[in-house]
Amino acid sequence: MADARADRSASKEQLVTVGGRRLKITNLDKVLYPETGTTKGEVIAYYTRIGAVMIPHVTGRPVTRKRWPDGVGTDEHPAQSFFAKDLEPGAPGWVHRLPIPHSGGPKDYPLIGDVPTLVYLAQVASLELHVPQWRFTAEGTRGDADRLVLDLDPGPGAGLAECAQVARWAREILGHMGLDPYPVTSGSKGMQLYCALPPGQRSEAASALAHELARAIEADHPDLVVSTMKKDLRGGKVLIDWSQNNTAKTTIAPYSLRGRAHPNVAAPRTWEELDDPELGQLSFHEVLDRVDSIGDPMAALGVHAGARSADDAPLRAYIAKRSAARTPEPVPDDPSAEPPGPATLPIFVIQEHHATALHWDFRLEHDGVLVSWAVPRGVPHSSRRNNLAIMTEDHPMSYAVFEGTIPAGEYGGGSVTIWDDGRYELEKWREDEIIATLEGRPGGPLGRVRLALIRTDGHGEKSSWLLHRMKTDAEGRVQPDGVVVEPSPQADGIVVEPAPQAETAPAEDPTATWPPTREDLRPMLSTSATPERAKLAARRWGDPVWAEAKWDGIRAIGVWDGSRLRLVARSGNDVTAKYPEVTEIDVGLGPEPAIIDGEIVAIDENGRPSFPLLQSRMNLQRPAEIARERTRTPVQYHLFDLLAADGHDLTARPLADRRTMLERLAARVTAPLVLPPVFDDVDAALQASRRFDLEGIVVKDPASTYRRGVRSESWLKVKLTRTQEVVIVGIRPGQGGRAQTFGSLLLGIPGPDGLDYAGRVGTGFSDTTLRSLMQTLAPLHTAERPLRDVPALDARGVQWVRPELVGEVEFGEFTPGGILRHSRWRGLRPDKAPEDVVRES
User: In this structure, which topology does domain 518-711 adopt according to CATH?
Assistant: First the structure.
């Protein structure tokens, strides 16, 4: 069972550690099922306990969720729910996700491969989890159908007994075809039948097979079976819904809760149970009890079907280092080996281990144990490098699913999470060399890769090996490079999300000595990044001036060390890993360290900077997701100022001098760095900005110094499209097509006495944005009004939210009372904090 350790005991909000992952849970005592009094805490506890048997049936499959943030209601007064396909932007970075193309653009679907992800989904009231009958491939593309499903839906006058009879007829036919079906009572009215398909079956073929099967049963039993959706034909009959084998369709996942009046579960059953005349749906309490008693009746269909899970192997060294009373790791009683299991491909697991020294534990099933190595740098991403691997003691097979925090002071103390796991095909296993092709979780970071382990020194435990990525696969084809292995963010041995940092300008230090030495430049931005800021132009500028295009992106300070660039956002957060196309190459800035000011921009198909497009990159955390998205949404880094170079601080020098030095430094830069031109004619700059449909220009005084963290009148913004950063303070309910999302957002702008009301925005939202904003704002709901002077009409029916999120809107003008007119949503600004928002004059 997952470790769930509360960091504080507040009843409304807690930080907990689940399987080595840290996340915030709220409102555990909130009742989600009024008729039974079942709370969110009980829902989270259910998904925590059921995860071990549920995950094999859903892993690798995109999850569509049905959410009830306010509970399911009652039979008489059911509450509203909404479907969620793409994962909300506020989801933790460790929640795995993969995209599926849609007409409005790709949507990132969550994938459930661990208990922490189940707990997160339960925290946001995702009660029902629906999945298709296919898994992603190792490359992250849509795979073939691996399961056939028949959904048996009783019409008026029919029930589970009739469904059970139809299931027996289907079982007989499927058995003659060599397919062994498993029944699942749906938790609602009917049941499903699942059976495994042989490899290489397209979803279209599976759907056609199910359709023919349904029609055949209908032809033999027309009094009880119907295979079409027409309601007037369904009275007293069971519909065999074959359509859920379609590649775009989903079915309630085995072991998922249902959002009905009672917390029933889509529960796998035995065929003997279907003979019971009192057969009924099962509650989540009953399902937990039966799993503890009989296990999973449907285990043979799981992704790791056939894998051994008992405590097995010659494990004396492993047991000698651990005490079951002091560590959550599996510690078997018997150090002997388990007899060979079913003839299936052996498993592997790679675990990220934040112990005294960070490393990745590489484990291969062999002779009933997990033969193990500690790899300080993880699996090499390229055949051009070899990584050191140190052999450790053999581990029990049950360690393949272990995630958690080993207490400090115990052997291996620290957090353990699964980086990837799956099965492997063995080519060679000798005492000094192992060659195998590993295939990880569908869509996982490893993919399918051929690896070699070569012993270089010593024997047995502590021996040294090289882990090598082969140049070719087993068929002789060149293997592509994989993802660079990077650690998850850590704090005190627990995985956490990076916390946003407020932007604060450093105080002037009159004792500081300038220029600093070359070594002084390297840590110059270690605590904060505070670029100079422009004011909105409220006066005519002086002479001489120059003008630059205003790029619709996010500011970033670039720290160049002579070979690679590090990027620091305005908030002080290091965003280097988010933009590898800029930071993983030598961009040609020369051998000496330097500090640059610039803008990260994403370019649309018309060659125009697009802030909405950049949003698809700003919130990514996982290296695999970043690597995938960089090919769809590449970024550029536009340079416009130089803060330090050649061991000297340049911020006290005039802008004209800094620009000259920047042009010299950037003379040989390579894409994706760009040095845009400057204009000495403001009107010409405005004309060019209009022609290329840019946001506007920035007018600068060429004699000005660089003032860190200051909103300077030496830099003046001239916007062709007026935009305003705003703080979200409330949600007005929607109607019609927006009944399940919202009609508009209430906005605030900081003033001298706190937040001032700035009006509403109700346009500019795509359907995806509406849903994702609802999900992002759900944890911020509050009963307290965060600002004053909201007109009664605007406040009617509003759900207030804590003023923590910043967005950006386009608008026509401010009314005399400070209300935005003709506002249109542009997007969230996760790079900004509420205290940074100022009213643009």
Answer: D-amino Acid Aminotransferase; Chain A, domain 1 (3.30.470)
